[in-house]
Design brief:
This protein has 4 helices and 5 strands, in the order H-E-E-H-E-H-E-E-H. It is an alpha+beta fold. Helix content is about 30%, strand content about 25%. The structure holds tetrahydrodeoxyuridine.
Length: about 130
């Protein structure tokens, strides 16, 4: 799937965001190696620490449905600069897809593509245990 098509799915997922506390909706779309796509949005709660990011929502949906091999992730938010995944999401994505391509969108529709290895250099992994 083309980067722009996956980014469009992330933008659509953003519409489902439940983010009344931050007012910062985020959407994500995770492309599996078998071609299926899992979408996610950020979901917050009155106990602020229980928020989950859009990227991890998409990841846990996919893994819980039996997917473990991923090729691309798109992330979208209404930001001036490209919206990149937070540290916790980077680490959790690395668990399953160290070679993931991460497509980061911004409000004006432009996007940048990073490798997860570039976003999380010297990552901790099972090999370190
Ligand atoms: N958030 C995401 O969903 N993904 C990111 O990449 C950055 C942050 C969410 C978490 C929280 O609901 C809100 O954005 C503000 O941090």
């Amino acid at each position: 799937m083309e980067d722009l098509a996956l980014l469009r799915q992330a933008r659509e997922a953003m519409a489902q965001s439940y983010s009344p506390y931050s007012g910062f909706p985020v959407g994500a779309a995770l492309l599996c190696e078998d071609g299926s796509v899992y979408r996610g949005c950020n979901i917050e709660g009155a106990s602020y620490g229980n928020a989950i990011c859009a990227e991890r929502t998409a990841l846990v949906k996919a893994v819980s449905e039996g997917r473990r091999r991923f090729s691309k992730l798109a992330v979208m938010a209404n930001t001036e600069d490209y919206c990149t995944p937070c540290g916790i999401c980077r680490q959790m994505l690395y668990e399953f897809a160290p070679d993931l391509a991460v497509i980061c969108g911004r409000a004006d529709g432009d996007y940048a593509v990073y490798s997860l290895r570039e976003l999380l250099p010297k990552a901790f992994s099972a090999a370190d245990l």
